[in-house]
């Protein structure tokens, strides 16, 4: 599933060529709306997992199996991984929001992989 939030590049055609289901928002609505749309699609279609990544090149798609592993092997209910390591001063507000949910500190919560399993109605 790819949520297109007003891309002006070849994102939609490339995603469709790769076999993805593409849902294009009517205009640029922002990341929050795109993520909520993805969650609604996942719930309404009984997805087993949803992996949240950005399409701006910040995330390495080949790392998806690594972040999926703890959930697939029943070692975790949710898997979150920051792409930043030590030395980065990130968004304090987003990090505080993330720590309040996960109990873990992330340098910048905007740049995380998130795996959320077991979507059902």
Explain what this protein looks like in three dimensions:
The protein has helices at 11-17, 31-44, 64-72, 92-102, and strands spanning 2-4, 22-24, 49-52, 79-82, 112-117. The two termini are 18 Å apart. Helix content is 34%, strand content 17%. Strands 3-5-4 form a 3-stranded antiparallel β-sheet, sandwiched between helices. The model is unreliable at 85-111 (pLDDT under 50).
Please specify the SSE layout and strand pairing.
Layout: E1 2-4, H1 11-17, E2 22-24, H2 31-44, E3 49-52, H3 64-72, E4 79-82, H4 92-102, E5 112-117
Parallel strand pairs: 1-2
Antiparallel strand pairs: 3-5, 4-5
Compact description:
This protein is of the alpha+beta class. It is built from 4 helices and 5 strands; from the N terminus they run E-H-E-H-E-H-E-H-E. The protein folds into 2 domains: 45 residues, no CATH class; 73 residues, no CATH class.
- What is the chain-wise order of helices and strands? EHEHEHEHE
Q: Determine the mean pLDDT.
A: 73
Helix count equals: 4
Q: Give the amount of beta strand, in percent.
A: 15-25%
Shape: globular
Segments where pLDDT lies below 50 for 5+ residues?
Answer: 85-111
Q: What is the strand arrangement across the widest sheet?
A: 3-5-4
Q: Alpha-carbon distance between the termini?
A: 18 Å
Total strand segments: 5
Count of all domains: 2
Helix fraction?
A: 25-40%
Largest sheet: 3 strands, antiparallel
The rounded Rg comes to: 15 Å
Q: What class would the helix/strand composition place it in? A: alpha+beta
**Quaternary:** single chain
């Amino acid at each position: 599933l790819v949520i297109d939030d007003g891309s002006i590049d070849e994102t939609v055609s490339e995603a469709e060529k790769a076999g993805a289901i593409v849902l294009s928002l009517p205009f640029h609505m922002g990341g929050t709306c795109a993520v909520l749309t993805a969650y609604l699609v996942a719930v309404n279609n009984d997805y087993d997992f949803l992996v949240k990544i950005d399409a701006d090149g910040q995330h390495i798609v080949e790392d998806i199996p690594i972040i999926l592993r703890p959930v697939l092997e029943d070692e975790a209910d949710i898997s979150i991984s920051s792409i930043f390591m030590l030395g980065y001063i990130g968004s304090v507000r987003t990090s505080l929001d993330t720590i309040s949910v996960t109990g873990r500190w992330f340098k910048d919560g905007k740049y995380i992989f998130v795996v959320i399993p077991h979507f059902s109605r």
